[in-house]
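Readers of this paper often ask what the protein records in our data store actually look like. Below, we set out a record of this kind in full and without editing:
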Amino acid sequence: MDGIGYATIADQFAKGLFREGLNNVFSPMYPLFVSLLHLAVPDVELAGRVVSLFFGVLLIWISFLFANRLLGDSRKALWMAALVAFPPYLLRFSSQVLSESVATFLFTLSVFSFFLGWQERRRSALALSGLCLVMTYLTRPEYLVFYAPFALLLLGRKRLVDCVMLLAPFLIVGLLYISYLHMQTGTYTVSNRVALSPFAGLAAFFPTIPFVSYDFMVAIFPLFFLLAICGLRRTNGPYRGLVLFLVVFHVLSLSFISHSTKRYSVEFVPILTIFAVEGIYAVREYFERLVPQRIVSSILLAAVIFMGILEPLTFSSNDRGLQKQAGLFLLKRGSGSVIAARLPLAAFYSKGQPVNLSSEMEADPSAEHFNRVLADRKVDYLVIDNELEKEVPMLKNRLSGWVPLYSLDHKGAFVKVYKVS
């Protein structure tokens, strides 16, 4: 559903409507990338998918390069690339109009660059880390907090100039964006979306930690999580300390957010995969005393690929696919019409104006109020689905004499399109 918001912003950016795009609740970096491709690709949804796929492929490449440098073994680096290519959530997000693929690449590059700059005293790497981190913040605002642990590690070694190099991109770009938001809203905020996910009180902080920790493990994927635990002690000490510090900081910071899901932790998959690679070698060394090495390696790789490919199949949503088909039908019949529905998908695909019928009927589910909504909002088409019928039982009787223009059903879900006379 967020993809509609991102696609809308990208379309506004491509048309030069930057103020409208920046005033949206979603952060601007991912839609900006999509808008640049949208200039060449007319279909904004396709442009968004290609951007996600592009950064997903780049993620595999930089993961291979970093693993080769950190582990000093090209075979382990190939395992790293394979493991990053098949985690279920990374597979899913690399094909959707969502910001996770871009955010994962930027955050991973910021962590890898910081580690090199921190260990090798390379200020150029720290500056790159700071730049990638501010871009991650402009993609997903909750990742702004990671300037704190990075800065603490540098200040702990009394590297003040290096800390300034790290923070410089945020002091220029990040503060400029925050200043713009202040001009528009009158309050200092890091994102327009903060109002939708306010900070929880201290009383809710400690009870939330177990739930955030569970979501974190699920986002990493249980198989990878177990392999990472097996390889924890085998991994480079400073890198292990850095990542564990970031993980603790991540879980604690998310515990202050009233609404946190596994999507908020997907960006940690690549940086933890280093541990999973070492875990594979630990498991292989244990079992190769009983089974030939090639067989163990083949079984492990097959398990990774098999689980990665099958898991995203459980994410399919019948009703949203039907909503899209209804929208494409309306695109041919009445592009730009006012469409009342439970979801804005049909209006998006038909380039129409959405009316959220679910929220409109929440306070008063009567037939009289339904008629008023249709008249006041000048609704042209109704898109009724099985979920909306459950929410507003009156609709089934109210529309009993109406003949649908279009009807689809699949595995218990249905969508019907009606013309409002």
